[in-house]
Amino acid sequence: DGGITQSPKYLFRKEGQNVTLSCEQNLNHDAMYWYRQDPGQGLRLIYYSQIVNDFQKGDIAEGYSVSREKKESFPLTVTSAQKNPTAFYLCASSIVAYTGELFFGEGSRLTVL
Amino acid sequence: EDQVTQSPEALRLQEGESSSLNCSYTVSGLRGLFWYRQDPGKGPEFLFTLYSAGEEKEKERLKATLTKKESFLHITAPKPEDSATYLCAVRASGTSYDKVIFGPGTSLSVIP
């Protein structure tokens, strides 16, 4: 079955550590996204990529980095510069960019100890 | 400022008790409104796209409608399995790229 796989589902990090969240899709979608979800707030866009080897900052990119070396993969690194990293992180993809019809993964919950 | 709000924040219904969820938006250049369902600890699941005022979409017990300022998600005779958080999002034309703005969601609980 086609879909988006995120790993790990749960992750604990000590302050000062970088962590990388994995996102893989087999939907053959061009565009991929990373969102952050906090209680009581709407999803906020961290980074998005329209095509391989290209990505743009979203609304809250500070303290995060991404790469898009393969069409299927869009990993997110949460760096030590991110001041409040504890959140639920969602990876999504779409057939084309700039559409609101997104396919989401199951999410990764990051907790900073 | 582009904004999407949803009401109520939480809704508790008896099984079979129909109701509506509201999504209000203030954006420049609406290019689509989207509804999603999100189960606890899971990613959102796409439900509907609406493009113009007067448009309606239906899926099982759900019907989404759109006006120039808001959208409603009507739930007819809900069942416990309809319990979830329902997210609304709008696509708005931006200066350099179209933005998709999500509302905070409405948490629906359907009691047997």
Element layout with pairings:
The complex is a heterodimer of chains A (about 110) and B (about 110).
Chain A: E1 4-7, E2 10-13, E3 19-25, E4 31-37, E5 44-51, E6 54-57, E7 64-66, E8 76-78, E9 87-94, E10 103-104, E11 108-112
Parallel strand pairs in A: 2-11
Antiparallel strand pairs in A: 1-3, 3-8, 4-5, 4-9, 5-6, 7-8, 9-10, 9-11
Chain B: E1 3-7, E2 10-14, E3 19-26, E4 30-38, E5 45-50, E6 56-59, E7 62-66, E8 70-75, E9 84-92, E10 99-102, E11 106-111
Parallel strand pairs in B: 2-11
Antiparallel strand pairs in B: 1-3, 3-8, 4-5, 4-9, 6-7, 7-8, 9-10, 9-11
Number of helices of chain B: 0
Largest sheet of chain A: 7 strands, mixed
Give the mean pLDDT of chain A. 93
Sheet/helix structural class of chain B: mainly beta
Which percent bin holds the helix content of chain A? Answer: under 10%
- The Cα radius of gyration of chain B reads 14 Å
Order of helices and strands of chain B: EEEEEEEEEEE
Radius of gyration of chain A: 13 Å
The gross shape of chain B turns out to be globular
User: Unreliable stretches of chain A, pLDDT < 50, 5 or more residues?
Assistant: none
Order of helices and strands of chain A: EEEEEEEEEEE
Please give the largest β-sheet of chain B: 6 strands, mixed
First and last CA, distance of chain A: 36 Å
Strand content of chain A: over 45%
Put simply, the count of helices of chain A is: 0
**Segments of chain B where pLDDT lies below 50 for 5+ residues?**
none
Quaternary state reads heterodimer
Largest chain interface and its two residue counts? Answer: A-B, 24 and 24 residues
Quote the average pLDDT of chain B.
93
Please give a structural write-up:
The complex is a heterodimer of chains A (113) and B (112). Helices cover 0% and strands 49% of the residues of chain A. Chain A contains no helices and eleven strands. In chain A, a hairpin with an 8-residue loop joins strand 9 (87-94) and strand 10. Chain B has strands at residues 3-7, 10-14, 19-26, 30-38, 45-50, 56-59, 62-66, 70-75, 84-92, 99-102, 106-111. In chain B, 0% of the residues lie in helices and 60% in strands. The N and C termini of chain B lie far apart (41 Å). In chain B, the strands form two sheets. In chain B, strands 2, 4, 5, 9, 10 and 11 form a six-stranded mixed beta sheet that branches. Chain B has a five-stranded antiparallel beta sheet with strand order 1-3-8-7-6, with no helix packed on it. Chain B has 112 residues and is mostly beta strands. Chain A binds chain B through residues 4, 6, 35, 40-45, 56, 90, 92, 97-107, 109, and chain B through 4, 32-34, 41-46, 49, 87, 89-91, 97-105.
